[in-house]
Amino acid sequence: MSIPKQVMLKEVGPRDGLQNESSIISTEKKIAWIDKLVEAGLKYIEVSSFVSPKWIPALADADDVFRYLKREDDVTYAALVPNEKGLERALRADVDEIGIFISASEAHNRRNVNKSIDETLSVLKEVVSTAKQEGKTARGYVSAVFGCPFEGHVSIGQVERVSHALLDMGIDELSLGDTIGVANPLQVKQVVRQLKTTIPTGKLALHLHNTRGLAQANIMAGLEENIQVFDGATGGLGGCPYAKGATGNVATEDVQYLMESLGIETGVSLKGLINAAKYIEPYVGNELPSYQLKLSQEEGDGA
Amino acid sequence: MSIPKQVMLKEVGPRDGLQNESSIISTEKKIAWIDKLVEAGLKYIEVSSFVSPKWIPALADADDVFRYLKREDDVTYAALVPNEKGLERALRADVDEIGIFISASEAHNRRNVNKSIDETLSVLKEVVSTAKQEGKTARGYVSAVFGCPFEGHVSIGQVERVSHALLDMGIDELSLGDTIGVANPLQVKQVVRQLKTTIPTGKLALHLHNTRGLAQANIMAGLEENIQVFDGATGGLGGCPYAKGATGNVATEDVQYLMESLGIETGVSLKGLINAAKYIEPYVGNELPSYQLKLSQEEGDGA
């Protein structure tokens, strides 16, 4: 069994993390946090989402975050875009990369965007085409890859169908999402192996939630299948805001710790990530589930 | 890669869990909890420890727990025994199996029992010999197998030496402990593979702590090496009592969830384990880190 020597961690906390927290954090604090994430060595930050502020008030300041952000040349500042209207805002904000999203589950997709998968694909095709004409790269988030809150089982065939539809539009990378945290390591290997029969491994990323404590085991399974891009959110941000203890995205610093313990290079500093998590935790208003954050607090590590 | 179809979960919560919590729980409540663990289908419970009550006040009632426990024929009620004096109490209590412990790290062993590894082996040899004469089986806990809080790195050779010394005494099973939760999945595979060159896999168990959130990834690594016995503590009991959020043993119900998601039989009911965790949590006095326990509380699953 061989695993990669180097992987890339992509930070989705400012978008996927905050989107699922109840607190509204000021633009200034978001920017200070993003600066700390970049200081930690992260080269990819999903900064915000250009969805309607009515849907996600916590990210209503996406335009301002991009306006006032000081950008580093070697960092990709990305944003989620649901449709043409969102894309217009994203282009005005001069994002480096757009992220689009669709669910592998028909029921979940409908609940999410009130459209069928095929209707959503039509919308996204236009969005990606325009973005590409404007010289942007595009990342595709496929949700509910490992299970759906409404349908339960999601077939690999359905994941393949959606993935290929996105790749055909020109999507540069697919982020395979375990949206509700039900994946297990055997399933991760099975899904990734199947996708690898028709998709280059370098186009696949894993986006795992730690709801049942299996995110790290699933990341290990991804590494064993040679996946080299993993999403995370500082602190493990993104638990459902009304559910006590529900964990959201796997904590970026916990993934970094795993990578360090396995001898895998990421170019990221664990201490820097913990600093960023420490910075944002008080503004989120609830204890974050990150193991490394808790350990650093216990050790009184005044980072 | 193949994994076992069936594994055995051994519950160490009443001993290793409570030993590291600050609360003192009444004998009556301990017994009620153990009954719930047995109802859940567990066939192995480490009930208590016959160490000096001065060392571990939380387990001072070991004799009484055994005295008043109603025993099921097909369940092994075990207890930890540090020395001949502890063994006398354990024999009087008619334990089904004794557990003895030693560290793979010289410094950790000295800190734990104020003896060198060789001195400890001499003591244990007598203990195991007497226990065997009395018809008892014996389990050997090897601590700090994957890292030591004082020495850091622990060599596999040292783990092998201690393991073989225990097996030579007649120990029936070795429980390999990641006492401080620093193991990673590659290391687990490496250590287990090396031990398997001279020890039958059926004599090896994994005892993992979830301090850095990697216990489940490490269990998966163990499964891939055909390990078929895993220790856990209901609720994830056993975090350091004075450190906020420090997680202790991996939660038995979280391991059960992993096994179910992998299609591995354990004979144990997840719901039953969650019930047992719900019962004990209020008496422990702090929120337990189990994912399944939290999920059941969110879902308002009135089990």
Describe the fold and architecture:
Two copies of one chain form a homodimer. Chain A has helices at 13-19, 27-39, 62-68, 84-92, 106-113, 117-133, 156-169, 185-196, 215-224, 252-262, 270-284, 291-298; strands at 8-11, 44-49, 76-80, 97-103, 137-143, 173-178, 204-208, 229-232. Chain A is built from twelve helices and eight strands. Chain A is globular, with a radius of gyration of 18 Å. Chain A has a single domain (8-298), classed as Aldolase class I (TIM Barrel). In chain A, helix 2 packs across helix 3 and helix 8 runs parallel beside helix 9. In chain A, strands 1-8-7-6-5-4-3-2 form an eight-stranded parallel beta sheet.
* Greatest interface (CB-CB under 8 A), with counts per chain: A-B, 37 and 36 residues
Q: What is the CATH topology classification name of chain A?
A: TIM Barrel
Major sheet of chain A: order of its strands? 1-8-7-6-5-4-3-2
**Helix and strand pattern of chain A:** EHHEHEHEHHEHEHEHEHHH
Please give the domain count of chain A.
1
Which CATH first-tier class of chain A would you pick? Alpha Beta
Biggest sheet of chain A, in brief? 8 strands, parallel
DSSP strand (E) fraction of chain A?
A: 5-15%
Average pLDDT of chain A, to the nearest integer? Answer: 94
Count of strand segments of chain A: 8
Q: Report the structural category of chain A.
A: alpha/beta
Q: Give the end-to-end Cα distance of chain A, rounded to a whole number of Å.
A: 36 Å
Protein name (chains A, B): Hydroxymethylglutaryl-CoA lyase
GO molecular function (chains A, B): hydroxymethylglutaryl-CoA lyase activity; metal ion binding
Domain Pyruvate carboxyltransferase (chains A, B): 7-274
Keywords (chains A, B): Lyase, Metal-binding
